[in-house]
Amino acid sequence: MTTRLVGPFNRVEGDLEVRLETEGGQVKAAYVNSPLYRGFEPMLSGKAPGDALVIVPRICGICSVAQSAASASALRALSGLALPDNGRLAHNLVSACENLADHLSHFYLFFMPDFARDGYTGRPWFERVAKRFKASSGSATADVLPARAEFMHLMGLMAGKWPHTLSLQPGGTARPLEQAECLQLTALLRAFRRFLERHVFDDSLESVGGLASLSDLAAWRQNRHGDLALFLEAAEDLGLDRIGRATDVFLSYGAYEEAHGHLFASGLWRAAQGHPLEPDAIVEDLSHAWLAGDTSSPAQGQTLPLADKPEAYTWCKAPRYNGGVAETGALARQMVAGHPLIRELVKTHGGSVTARVLARLLELALVLPRMEAWARQLEPKAPWCHHGDLPDDASGTGLVEAARGSLGHWLTVKHGRIANYQIIAPTTWNFSPRDEQGTPGALEQALAGLPAPEAEEPPLLVQHVVRSFDPCMVCTVH
Amino acid sequence: MPELNLLWLQSGGCGGCTLSLLNAEQPALMDRLADASIRLLWHPSLSEASGNEALEILRACAEGRQRLDILCLEGSVMTGPSGTGRFHMLAGTGRPMMAWVEELAAKAAHVLAVGTCAAYGGITSAGITGPSVGATGLQFHGEHPGGLLPASFRAGAGLPVVNVAGCPTHPGWVLDTLLALSMRRLTEDDLDALHRPRFYADHLVHHGCPRNEFYEFKASAEKASDLGCMMENMGCKGTQAHADCNTRLWNGSGSCLRGGYACISCTEPRFEEPGHPFTETPKVAGIPIGLPSDMPKAWFVALAALSKSATPKRVRENATSDHVVVTPAVKKTGLK
What we know:
The complex is a heterodimer of chains A (about 475) and B (about 325). With about 475 residues, chain A is of the alpha+beta class.
């Protein structure tokens, strides 16, 4: 048995270290470490509840709106306010903008450059992929950065700035739009659609979002010259549809509230069928984290650093659902929501690198048309925000979907001040350490069994699997 | 211009300054770096090199085998618990990030603190119940000189740590600073007392605020989504905070004030602990404590009383509404 320490893992958000125990060039066991702790949960204690809206976005610069939305949602649960239609639409539009921009950044800047590494020289697709996706210098970077920045003008319009907006409020948005601004919004969504259809898909969003089976996908790929087709070609050649399987238990809190239910439903997918979401089934196990305390529901959880704790190897807690490991993210969201192509892909080979990346790109095709519809539904002269006082003593939960999965905030207020604030981020689920029973987290399971040749430093397949989860390490331990 | 190589590290922050940097426009990030003759040695979000390949670049800089022109740190320096730096060990090295930063800063020709965390400690150094995480800035702790590096520190080319403060920083602030360094146009005189580049820190957030008509008449917002001035009730510090947010703009057309919420003075040391709820204005006898930086209090009070008495109906009613309820009159006789 040989131990290899892999880090810093870059092109993930934040700092990540993975310890691999290998034998005969194969991973026997993986231990995932989030090596940065900042203490946001204790920082929130004693503050005015509304201050959470300033502080929690600063947990993360890549999904700061998701943190903001979860906090606004938890405060809304405290106050009993309901969102006016404009407020709900604005929350959806701002959240969708961040989520889609994340999917885009992840695919182009974080994930695809691994295929342009010298280790793949000679593969039939290598020259084309290297020219397009080489880190920093590939032609895709020059296309994507301006398109992403222009799409983010939505944030300038509806959220003041990104990251770290304060416009999402418990009762709606602090940024009402006028007629002219609704028109600008429509124009910039059209521009982003044009970019996606031209470069990512080489087809209309509706056509891509409507792919309903593996045979549909195989037929569609023929003669497509977009970046999705290029990814599928490389992924097929490397067998990535059979690599990186975790538990195949998928969790989603439900994404984008519409007038009647979520655009993507909430729930748990386990043993090849869907179950309703039960928030009370969630606990956090601290046995292998540098933290003091016992397993508990996040509503009662604690965050007390204990840097010298034996048996611990990360700052990340281990969230469990009914005692088991769950995976979250775009793949989980689409499994729970029932996208037929994604369900068939997972039924055939289980969760995989290919499935995670494809689910992410499908969301680009599925969500942008909804954003266009939401923008059309805005009514400038109707209310944008409801107002009300927060109670001095109450508890509330905010459950939202960030780009990379389920994000929950659990908040208790006593005597008008925050008494406890606990957060479970998507990567906390996916990159959790072992629990008290010794069960490894989702990534730890997905890495076991992979080839890890000595010559590859770090091993290429390990990198694909790690990045396929689109991890956000600063959120993980906050 | 000679090519300058740049090493970017992240510690006790959120990565938001890097993500903000990706929003650079006209031209986009990679072109702007190239135009400033900046070559990335390594950046945690953008570079191919991972694991040992990346560590080899860091080691080469630390050992002087690789010239290091610009070291950027994003995020605060994590000194806790109890000065050990254990709260951030650089992955793959078993060594605290603060030790890496100290060693690399000693080799760099220029050192940039990117964002308020790296400059002054930032949000990560906000008060905490329980053990302190020991977050501090590179060369300031809050407003006090001396952080990880002493107040006397000067980088190889002679400048102290340049504090590109902001939470997050505007991409223009970072890229203009890099361009100025590469054009040799950044001297100590170009930095303010808190070592921020003066090209953006000599402005106030108030400059260019589209709510200025409401400010003139002290027609104030009372709740989120109101159109009025946010200074009197909503905690806005735009008249005191140093930055050009309302003239440079964010993400095309935005700023915090344009987004409907208060300036929380995120370019200033200690913004993270204002001593009052962020979006409430502390007052004594009904008068805000934090008045515009350069204005005698008595004058402010007198002028505010006068302007409030002269507030047009249009401005007064729109201030507490979420859309324009009274429009400017259309005169039949033309403008004179």
